[in-house]
Design a protein that fits this description.
By secondary structure, the protein is mainly α. It has nine helices and no strands. The chain has one domain.
Length: about 180
Amino acid sequence: MPDLRVLCPSIEFDNYATQPCPCGYYNHPEKDCVCGPGVVKRYLSKISGPLLDRIDLHVEVTPVKIEELTNAERPKVTSTDIRERVLRAREVQAERFKDLKDVYSNAQMPSRMVREVCQLDDTGLTLLKTAMERLQLSARAFDRILKVARTAADLAGSTDIRIEDLAEAIHYRSLDREGWAG
């Protein structure tokens, strides 16, 4: 797959990664975590809430089995297909922000624009309100979710943020979830 920095040169990619626990096996599909009770929660609590709020996507990555890596089946979606979707979404965003200096993507959108550009229908508002309450998310997380949902809609070629775009964006806030670490 091509480097996203080449596909999207105007995006600043900040890579933040952490092991899920000191031994590295918490939530591993095949190996047991050997960390004692409370160790995982203490370990992950070292990442501050304000720092997590500033990260748009929280993705838990589990190891890929060798069988999946050696599977000869061609993927249903190719890198070329994905590249084309990304380029179309970038064009939509460039048009959306053409009158703003130094804003080229949804991630760079000023907070004052979020409510205007990222409008939700009643079902979406209910879903987001429920997620905010249950996950005890901050106002900053609220804006991040809306920006990510807008991007998901752009990638899908949708002019409106659909419920699936919003659900995907909420899903990417996994480290905000109460009890994530035990």
